[in-house]
């Protein structure tokens, strides 16, 4: 399939918009607790939707799976399991830090590792000085934007703590460390996709296009992430005795399903965009995807009122960080041209 940078970028923009807002419905849950919503989100996003897409779009899916070795299955599953742990921490970080700041820290680290690891592991021979300079410069500017956003978030948190109920002084820093750990594990979803391309290639050999073959990877990689998410949700349901909130079925199920549709839809579009972007699709493409996701989450956090009443320096830092992210987008797009 011929590369098409405009199509690839357009798909990544839409994917970033969907991913950046996928956790926003969590703020509108009224009856369910976090674990109720997360259980439904997990089942829909990690089981129902990826299998529905793969079965509907990939011909001879099980024949393609049958042609693979155990190792070719194990690699994406194990990376998916690491990401599954990050996914649990992600939901907790959103609650403790807010949408904008949690996304900035987690996706910032995830972008750095998720871009560079596949780039050097799979395309070391294709990376010349110009491409490497553009990629590293783009990531560096993006990380500056993330740091400014985190700084602004700390200012906002500091002001909020003076008017809210007293909390332990280390609470904010503990929440940041939790987000950092999540950021280290988060790019494993991209490792699962990037290092699971043997699955997509097997689907291509059975007559599928490269774009459609990408959907064959997700059910395998996301299967690894199912266990941590499902296990933690069930643990909380039992500990908090919140399973009774499912009866009768609350309207909150709509928010959980919407979260799943936005998240899985964003990953599906990212997989398509990686095909159009060519060999750097799972490295530079990942950086672009995450950058658009951060910008969307930051703007959504502002619109949701997270920054209402924040001091002016905090809002200024947020604005400068958005400019940095736009510059990073231009550099990463240039590296993939």
Gist?
The protein has helices at residues 5-20, 34-57, 61-66, 70-97, 99-122, 129-163, 171-185, 188-194, 197-205, 210-213, 218-240, 253-277, 284-303, 312-335.
Could you give the topology of this structure?
Layout: H1 5-20, H2 34-57, H3 61-66, H4 70-97, H5 99-122, H6 129-163, H7 171-185, H8 188-194, H9 197-205, H10 210-213, H11 218-240, H12 253-277, H13 284-303, H14 312-335
Overview of this structure, please?
The protein is mostly helical. The chain has one domain. It is about 75% helix and about 0% strand. It is globular. The two termini are about 15 Å apart. About 5% of the residues have low confidence.
What key attributes describe this structure?
single chain, 337 residues, mainly alpha, globular
Unreliable residue stretches: 161-169
Average pLDDT taken over every residue = 84
Portion of residues within helices: over 70%
Order of helices and strands: HHHHHHHHHHHHHH
| Count of helix runs | 14
Structural class: mainly alpha
Rg, alpha carbons: 20 Å
Tell me, briefly, the overall form. Answer: globular
Distance between the termini: 16 Å
Number of strands: 0
State the assembly state of the protein chains: single chain
What is the strand content?
A: under 5%
The biggest beta sheet is recorded as: none
Q: Estimate nothing, just give the exact number of structural domains.
A: 1
């Amino acid at each position: 399939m011929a590369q098409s940078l405009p199509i690839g970028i357009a798909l990544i923009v839409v994917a970033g918009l969907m991913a950046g807002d996928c956790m926003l419905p969590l703020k509108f849950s009224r009856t369910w607790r976090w674990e109720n919503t997360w259980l439904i989100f997990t089942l829909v996003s990690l089981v129902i939707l990826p299998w529905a897409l793969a079965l509907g779009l990939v011909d001879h899916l099980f024949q393609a799976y049958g042609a693979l070795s155990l190792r070719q299955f194990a690699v994406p599953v194990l990376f998916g399991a690491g990401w599954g742990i990050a996914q649990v921490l992600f939901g907790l970080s959103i609650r403790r830090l807010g949408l904008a700041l949690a996304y900035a820290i987690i996706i910032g680290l995830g972008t750095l590792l998720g871009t560079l690891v596949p780039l050097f592991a799979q395309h070391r021979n294709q990376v010349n000085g110009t491409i490497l300079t553009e990629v590293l410069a783009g990531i560096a500017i993006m990380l500056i934007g993330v740091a400014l956003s985190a700084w602004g978030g700390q200012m906002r948190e500091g002001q909020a703590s003076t008017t809210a109920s007293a909390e332990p002084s280390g609470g904010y820093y503990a929440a940041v460390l939790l987000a950092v750990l999540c950021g280290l594990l988060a790019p494993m979803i991209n490792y699962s996709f990037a290092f699971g391309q043997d699955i997509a290639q097997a689907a291509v050999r059975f007559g599928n296009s490269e774009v459609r073959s990408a959907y064959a990877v997700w059910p395998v990689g996301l299967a690894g992430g199912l266990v941590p998410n499902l296990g933690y949700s069930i643990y909380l349901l039992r500990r908090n005795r919140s399973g009774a909130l499912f009866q009768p079925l609350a309207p909150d199920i709509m928010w959980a399903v919407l979260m799943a549709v936005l998240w899985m839809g964003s990953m599906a579009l990212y997989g398509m965009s990686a095909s159009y972007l060519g060999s750097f699709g799972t490295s530079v493409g990942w950086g672009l995807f995450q950058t658009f996701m951060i910008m969307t989450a930051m703007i959504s956090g502002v619109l949701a009122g997270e920054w209402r009443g924040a001091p002016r320096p905090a809002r200024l830092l947020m604005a400068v960080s958005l400019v940095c992210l736009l510059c990073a987008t231009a550099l990463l797009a240039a590296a993939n041209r």
